[in-house]
């Protein structure tokens, strides 16, 4: 399934979208294995192992047919090694062309034509392609030409991406076909020139230090690529595939070293080692690309499961529809509101919900124009619901789809009807700092005990008017307090008074807070001066006046030589001052609140006291 991308740079989703440069590396064990394979033949040579093609015993009694077969043993081994490398290059190319990234496609194409040059080398030396030059010179010359072509084509392709980048290119079939044609034309020209040349230069010098001087140029090119081009490309386009290309330089260089300084004849020890290692130069990128695809598949599966889980548990109801109106998917939230089976089984053009809520016209317009739509709808699905509907268009497999998102705003609608009206106030205490926030504004700001009746103006019930007087609170909340003016007037003005009120509620054991450990000096000080912040008030009951201990946070702060703001900022220190008389009282916070409301004394306080605390 292909999903359209909007303005996503190719270098961001490079190669196979595998993440960071650090994570786009093959395991060190694999790198060490490649190095070991390159070095092992040389070490085995030191202990007497010879990988050269075995010569037949001239004293052996063999038929003419057997002698012919034995004489071709080296050619058979050479053909197997070269053709195996070509097949691996072919598989790598097909795998790369299945990628959606231009970099991977063109690198795969380059590897394919490099393999084609090796195939030509094999066919020419096996006389399957008609040539006019002597085979003794054709073998090493075409080998050197193919190696030079292999090095140059990779340097040119990777260098092109490093210089030009990918953003300026379109990853389409036209670019791939054009570059493939160019590579193919170049490969054919080299093949034709080599096959039709009557005389070819001497390329092997058995007695020299460099037995194959024509292989020196590819050696230096591979060294340059390994030190400059491949590392820069991997850093620019990190992936397992680009890292495998970098690692493939190891057998590339080893191959050239064996040929330049070792091989003195066709099918000798170093000749066969070099051809085996050349096969490894195709195998390493193939392994890297295969692992890249495997990781991509795992990543996509994880992403699919992740997105599926998010859609399933999302608080928004989400459904998607094809352009013909048939539902494709619906999550649990929309199923809870409307019914999943109903959504999945119906075409949105036949759903009454769409018709009655005038969503049908919005959906058709969104599908045709791509303009997102939002509508607030009042519907009934067994119960009255207020919902916000969002409509958006997206593309999958070149087909327009409609995305419907439903947000249940019933509670918000009901809350709008519960905006503060009249006297009293609501306030929130911040969790991490000593500040309070008023959640509503009373009718008149000069004093909190005044009220205007709802019947004084119809405007009092209008949504905009009520919303303008109601303030949201988005920070972590320590406590929410809603009170009548009988309490708010006693703690006027509210900007500091609400902190004072919160402190009194904690100190009188109404709001439970885990106390912090006091120092010995603080404990001794509070014990000595307890009477300075705890007062005994007489609470009138049916049984007469009952002495009741009441604590004052302002006096408690003075004893600790702190401001009320500093004390509120550390509620645990505040709770540590709750006296034993209150702690040991066998009562609930609710009953202590009622006792405190009946008992605390403020001069001039005469109104009714009602207080709701959410902590």
TrEMBL record:
Protein name, UniProt field: PAS domain-containing protein
Keyword NAD: no
Organism expressing this protein natively: Candidatus Thiomargarita nelsonii
SUPFAM superfamilies for the chain: PYP-like sensor domain (PAS domain)
Ranges that cross the membrane: 28-49, 80-98, 110-129, 141-163, 175-196, 216-233, 240-261, 273-291, 466-487, 499-519
Keywords: Membrane, Transmembrane, Transmembrane helix
InterPro entries per the UniProt record, alphabetical: PAS-like_dom_sf
């Amino acid at each position: 399934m292909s999903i359209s991308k909007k303005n996503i740079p190719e270098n961001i989703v490079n190669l196979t979208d595998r993440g960071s440069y650090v994570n786009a590396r093959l395991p060190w064990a694999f790198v060490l294995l490649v190095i070991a394979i390159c070095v092992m033949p040389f070490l085995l040579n030191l202990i007497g192992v010879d990988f050269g093609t075995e010569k037949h015993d001239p004293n052996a009694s063999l038929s003419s047919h057997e002698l012919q077969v034995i004489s071709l043993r080296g050619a058979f081994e050479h053909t197997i090694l070269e053709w195996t490398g070509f097949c691996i290059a072919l598989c790598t190319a097909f795998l790369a062309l299945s990628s959606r990234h231009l970099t991977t496609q063109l690198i795969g194409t380059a590897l394919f034509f490099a393999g084609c040059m090796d195939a030509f080398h094999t066919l020419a030396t096996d006389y399957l392609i008609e040539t006019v030059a002597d085979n003794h010179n054709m073998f090493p010359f075409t080998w050197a030409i193919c190696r030079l072509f292999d090095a140059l084509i990779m340097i040119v392709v990777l260098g092109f991406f490093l210089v030009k980048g990918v953003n300026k290119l379109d990853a389409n079939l036209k670019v791939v076909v054009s570059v493939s044609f160019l590579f193919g034309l170049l490969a054919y020209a080299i093949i034709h020139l080599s096959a039709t040349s009557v005389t070819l230069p001497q390329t092997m010098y058995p007695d020299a230090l460099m037995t194959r001087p024509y292989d020196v140029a590819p050696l230096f090119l591979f060294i340059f690529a390994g030190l400059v081009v491949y590392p820069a490309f991997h850093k620019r386009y990190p992936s397992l595939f680009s890292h495998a290309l970098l690692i493939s330089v190891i057998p590339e260089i080893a191959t050239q070293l064996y040929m330049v300084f070792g091989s003195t004849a066709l099918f000798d020890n170093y000749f066969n080692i070099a051809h085996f290692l050349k096969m490894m130069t195709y195998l390493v990128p193939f392994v890297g690309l295969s692992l890249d695809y495997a990781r991509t598949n795992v990543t996509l599966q994880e992403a699919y499961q992740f997105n599926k889980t998010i859609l399933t548990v999302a608080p928004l109801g989400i459904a998607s529809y094809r352009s013909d109106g048939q539902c494709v998917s619906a999550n649990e939230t929309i199923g809870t509101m409307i019914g999943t089976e109903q959504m999945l089984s119906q075409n949105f053009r036949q759903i009454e919900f769409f018709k009655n809520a005038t969503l049908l016209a919005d959906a058709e317009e969104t599908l045709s124009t791509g303009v997102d739509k939002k509508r607030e709808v009042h519907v009934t699905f067994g119960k009255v619901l207020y919902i916000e509907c969002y409509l958006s268009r997206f593309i999958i497999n070149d087909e327009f789809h409609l995305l419907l998102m439903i947000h249940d705003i019933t509670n918000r609608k009901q809350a709008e009807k519960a905006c503060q009206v009249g006297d009293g106030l609501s306030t929130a205490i911040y969790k991490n700092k000593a500040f309070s926030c008023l959640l509503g504004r009373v009718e008149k700001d000069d004093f909190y005990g005044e009220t205007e009746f709802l019947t004084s103006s119809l405007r009092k019930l209008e949504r905009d008017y009520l919303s303008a007087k109601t303030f949201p609170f988005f920070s972590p909340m320590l406590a929410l307090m809603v009170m009548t003016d009988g309490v708010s007037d006693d703690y006027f003005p509210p900007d500091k008074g609400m902190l004072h009120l919160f402190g009194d509620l904690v100190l009188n054991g109404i709001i439970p807070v885990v106390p912090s450990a006091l120092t010995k000096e603080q404990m001794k000080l509070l014990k000595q001066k307890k009477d300075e912040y705890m007062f005994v008030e007489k609470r009138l009951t049916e049984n007469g006046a009952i002495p009741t201990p009441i604590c004052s946070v302002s006096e408690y702060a003075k004893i600790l030589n702190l401001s009320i703001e500093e004390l509120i900022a550390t509620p645990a220190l505040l709770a540590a001052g709750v006296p034993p008389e209150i702690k040991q009282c066998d009562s609930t916070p609710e009953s202590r609140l009622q006792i405190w409301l009946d008992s605390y004394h403020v001069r001039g306080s005469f109104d009714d006291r009602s207080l709701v605390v959410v902590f």
